[in-house]
Design a protein that fits this description.
- About 70% of the residues lie in helices and about 0% in strands.
- The protein has 8 helices and no strands.
- It is an all-alpha fold and about 180 residues long.
- Helix 2 packs antiparallel against helix 4, helix 3 runs antiparallel to helix 4 and helix 5 packs parallel to helix 8.
- It is globular.
């Protein structure tokens, strides 16, 4: 826990050294990181995830909140911070934010599917508790796969065909999620 605390503090120290370019406020990069890491972001998602473990019947809404705040917020912050540092326009930032949120959600859903497959693989120990509740637990494997594919499609749509965004690498990341094995 202390190592994690130290690394998080170091991240803020490093980001605080870089001022965002005009027209953004100088502290915009720190603000993005704080939103993603704080009580309305990863920490809030983790708290809700812990509460799901004690729940008899987790809801799709609660699971969606956890995925949005534990995983997608990190993707969102990473992409937004890069775009802000590069001086993105409001329209570019909006498109890249939509891309990042959908890639983050797809990543988490695919992760849940892979965890479920690993737990059911021959030779896997049974009865071993997984961390939290997964999309497969709530929706089933087929619907989870459909949800991941829909998020990948939305991510691609957010940046495809935009001459103001050079998104080749970003599109490749979204596509990689379809065939992710680990």
């Amino acid at each position: 826990t202390l190592a994690g605390d130290a690394l998080q503090t170091l991240a803020f120290e490093i980001v605080a050294r870089a001022a965002a370019p005009h027209p953004y406020p100088a502290a915009q990069l720190v603000t993005e990181l704080a939103r993603a890491a704080g009580s309305q972001g990863v920490i809030g998602g983790q708290v809700e995830d812990i509460s799901l473990a004690d729940s008899d019947k987790p809801t799709a809404e609660t699971l969606s909140y956890v995925h949005l705040h534990k995983t997608a917020d990190l993707f969102r912050a990473s992409v937004r911070m890069g775009a802000i540092a590069a001086g993105a326009t409001d329209a570019q930032l909006e498109a890249l934010t939509a891309y990042a949120v959908n890639v983050g959600l797809a990543f988490q859903i695919v992760d849940d599917i892979l965890d479920e497959q690993e737990a059911g693989a021959p030779g896997a120990e049974t009865g071993e508790a997984r961390d939290g509740v997964s999309c497969v637990d709530v929706h089933g494997r087929d619907k989870a796969r459909t949800m991941a594919e829909a998020n990948i499609c939305l991510a691609r749509q957010a940046i495809e065909g935009r001459p103001d965004i050079t998104g080749g690498a970003l599109l490749a990341i979204a596509d990689m999620l379809k065939d992710r094995k680990a």
